[in-house]
Specification:
The protein starts with a strand and ends in a 10-residue tail after the last helix. By secondary structure, the protein is of the alpha+beta class. Helix content is about 25%, strand content about 25%.
């Protein structure tokens, strides 16, 4: 009995670009159980796995590493035995690379050696970020936030044996602010602005070797801070193990990129295609500030909001930024009722 391994990511994948197969994890002729990871593929900067739909021998690959495929494509064939006759099939063709015009790449100094081939993930990041810069006309707002209340909240949670990072707080604050300014998650299309009702917030997570992924915290407006912290830790760990599923990285309407763990005070993030805005947050630094006519030292962090001007105007972006700042400075609503 022949069982096809069909790529079926479900409806959550949406209209994202076609995935590319990164590597096969099982060898041809290997006996696998149902649920065994067969291969890894990349989509939307995430590396995910395809599990075996049945037990049997992995008899033939139909998609080689590096090739792109679509929902419904057959990736491989399983059989109950090694001598079972397989149908006539052929491997999927590798994608043709398009020439990049307008620049003489031979002019690049290669005294350091030959060019290092791009990995599937690095090529995906390059393609999607270039697409974003080409097609999304962005503007940027930068503000500063007093992190005193967030630091005190983090101490309170730690005493209770619970953890939450500034990244978690920024995700929760963004979700609350977006409930008050829902037009900020409407996405531009040639047919009009598409509203988004579910506030799924993505966050940038760096991988150990190279690249990054953007897992998504689902319904962040309805999750308390500790629940969000649990989600981000779980998703980041799955990303490091290469175990993210399509649903873990789909449906995002807004993203947060946090570099506070590094010596980065301020940066500008690139809007993810399919979203209207992204919040960048740098590290918290003690700085002198004027408060009621007196100079005091406070822990301050810079926020930069990148917005798609086709769907968000300056005044709306300013109100959203002001709302996020107010929530972080007061921690209003961040924890709901869990520590009251």
């Amino acid at each position: 009995m022949i069982t096809p391994v069909v790529f079926d990511p479900g409806r959550e994948l949406g209209a994202t670009p076609r995935p590319a197969l990164v590597e096969w994890l099982a060898a041809e002729g290997e006996l696998v159980d149902v649920g065994t990871p067969l291969c890894r593929y990349e989509i939307d900067k995430a590396v995910l796995t395809v599990a075996s739909p049945a037990s049997g021998y992995l008899r033939r690959y139909l998609v080689p590493a590096g090739a792109r495929f679509s929902s419904g494509d057959v990736l491989a064939l399983l059989a109950k035995s090694l001598d079972e006759t397989l149908p006539e099939t052929r491997l999927a063709h590798l994608p043709n690379e398009k020439d990049i015009r307008g620049f003489d790449w031979s002019e690049i100094d290669n005294h350091g050696g030959p060019a290092e081939p791009l990995t599937v993930m690095r090529r995906a990041i390059a393609d999607r970020m270039a697409m974003s810069k080409r097609h999304i006309p962005c503007f940027y707002l930068t503000g500063v936030v007093d992190m005193s209340a967030c630091i005190e909240l983090r101490r309170t949670l730690k005493k209770q044996g619970r953890k939450a990072t500034f990244n978690d707080m920024a995700i929760r604050a963004s979700a609350i602010a977006l409930t008050r300014h829902p037009r900020a998650v409407s996405v531009y299309t040639p047919e009009g602005l598409v509203p988004r009702s579910d506030l799924h917030i993505g966050f940038a997570a760096a991988l150990p070797d190279e690249g990054l992924v953007v897992p998504v915290v689902k319904n962040a407006d309805k999750r308390c801070l500790v629940e969000i912290a649990t989600d981000t830790r779980t998703l980041a760990e799955k990303a490091k193990r290469g175990e993210l599923e399509p649903g873990d990285c789909s449906g995002g309407v807004f993203s947060v990129s946090y570099l506070g763990a590094y010596e980065v005070e301020n940066f500008i993030a690139i809007v993810n295609p399919g979203e209207a805005a992204i919040l960048a947050m740098g590290r918290t630094i003690e700085q002198p500030v004027a408060v009621h006519g007196e100079v005091v030292v406070r822990p301050m962090a810079k926020l930069t909001l990148s917005c798609d001007h086709r769907s968000i105007d300056g005044a709306l972006a300013a109100r959203l930024m002001t709302e996020i700042k107010k929530i972080l400075e007061s921690t209003e609503g961040l924890v709901l009722t869990e520590i009251e």
